[in-house]
Amino acid sequence: MTQPKQLNSQASSNFKAIFIMGVLFFILGFITWLNGTLIQFLKLACQLDNDIQAFFVTFAFYIGYFFLAIPSSYLLKKTGYKKGLALGLLVIAGGSAIFIPASNARSFPLFLTGLFVQSMGMSILQTAINPYISIIGPIESAAQRISIMGICNKVAGMISPIILGAVVLNNATALENKINAATDAILKTGLLNELASRIVTPYIVLTLSLIVLAILIRFSPLPEIDTDKEEKLALGKQKTKSSIFQFPHLLLGVICLFLYVGVEVMAGDAIGTYGKAQGLPLDITKYFTAFTLAAMLLGYIAGIITIPRIISQQTGLKISAILGIVFSVGTYVTTGYTAISFIALLGLANALMWPAIFPLAIKGLGRFTKTGSALLIMGIVGGGIIPLVYSYFKDKLHIANNLSFFMCVLPCYAYILFYSMKGYMAGKVPDEPVPGFLGQESGLEGKAAQEGALQV
Predict the structure, then answer these.
(1) Residue 118 belongs to a domain
(2) pLDDT tens for residues 62-76?
(3) How many angstroms separate the CA atoms of 456 and 26, rounded?
(4) Which residue has the higher pLDDT, 156 or 14?
(5) How many other C-beta atoms are found inside a 10 Å radius of the C-beta of residue 105?
(6) What are phi and psi of 315, to 5 degrees?
């Protein structure tokens, strides 16, 4: 009688943990995909001169991953996963709170500071949350758990720009025309202050929600996990390697992930700016990010159904890269809502890339797995750099909007296609098996591959 009770208790504990992780993935997706709306909001509220300045929103948000990925792994060793999750939420709450004085002062640098602090917390949270959801239950069902988390994340990403856009950019086109037409400095300042104040209430609610969630996580029955024990089991696997830089497939994978996150942010956050450059009204463009996220959700569901039952993850990555190239060309040769539709469809092309690139890049690292994971997480900074390149081409070099976008995304998808065909095998024995969807294989390396199988 004791064993069934223990199994029921373990199943109940795992269910609670998975539910809590689902909430956290929802929060991460919600905050991450606010940036598309923030770019348009801050450009107007802070009277930025060009899109280069506006795209420092994504730069400030993603640069934290570059600096904090490796320190976050060391921090989690000291705090444990549960305390680390709570700490990450509190740091994000601190960054969100900075938006309140930033709004009162209409200070763009202060807004960027808040975004950078948010990204620090996101880095801690992301470093903790992926291995946790992978290891909290049976390895055989890890892909199912990650798939559920992915749906939570993408649904949140669809909702967040709609909510923020409706609140802070309500009647945005009319307000924008008023601001641009105002000749009296006092009247114009009043209009801008009124616009900037709209963001205060949403970020007060967000800050308080994050603090409450951090407290609940800290005192929740969330079980701890021990990844160090798993790492010790693999110490003898890579005796012939002395450095992480002896794995060319990993280094090529870091570049691949850098470029992938760049095009993902271009499709999700730059789509509104692209629409504005096409002459579309702000009242419409503020919702464009949600279209991209809806396409990503469809792609993610398609991957769950087809991989690995019908196609391998490597084949899925290849198909995704080809779709990215096709949709990029479609964006370049069309205009208006048709071009916007092709950009949104890039979300479909991007959906399966992280789940494929990460395990392909991390395969066979053995005792270097954690360091390799940190390097890949650092690659997320691509989401802050490639949109800046796009805006530089468009605003400083005065290259046509559609050509600037095309020049940024097409080479990225071409490289991802190369990695899906050749790069993932660099330095490997040709007949070495390729991991399944989301690193779905037995043993420590399967678990390690799943640690980063979902980008949030």
Answers:
(1) yes
(2) 998 898 888 887 888
(3) 9
(4) 156
(5) 14
(6) -65, -40
Residue 13 covered by a domain: yes
- In angstroms, the Cα distances linking 292 to 17, 268, 321 are 30, 6, 16
Task: Give the pLDDT band of residue 204 (cuts 50, 70, 90).
Answer: very high
Among 10-19, 94-103, 277-286, 437-446, the minimum mean pLDDT is found in: 437-446
Specify if 333 maps to a domain: yes
> For residue 230, is it within any domain?
no
Cα 266 to Cα 343: distance, rounded to the nearest angstrom: 9
Nearest Cα neighbor of 266 from 48, 51, 49, 30 is: 51
The predicted structure's pLDDT at residue 157: 87
CA 436 to chain centre: 22
Residue 230: other Cβ atoms inside 10 A = 17
Q: What is the CATH number of the domain that holds 109?
A: 1.20.1250.20
Query: In this structure, what DSSP letter does residue 369 have?
Result: H
> What does pTM read for this prediction?
0.83
CB atoms within 10 A of CB 402: 18
**Residues 6+ positions from 179 with CB-CB distance below 8 Å:** 44, 188, 191, 192, 195
Range of the domain at 335: 2-224+236-450
The CA distance from 455 to 451, in Å, is 10
Supply angle C-alpha 71, 74, 78, rounded to 5. Answer: 135
Number of domains in the chain: 1
Neighbours of 398 (CB within 10 A): 8
Both tokens of 116, joined, read 């950078």
| Residues 120-177 pLDDT 10s | 999 888 877 866 776 666 644 555 576 678 788 888 988 998 899 888 888 878 888 8
Report how far residue 320's alpha carbon sits from residue 283's, in angstroms, rounded to the nearest whole number. 31
What tokens were used for 342? 């092709």
Give how far Cα 31 sits from Cα of 9, 20, 378, Å: 33, 17, 19
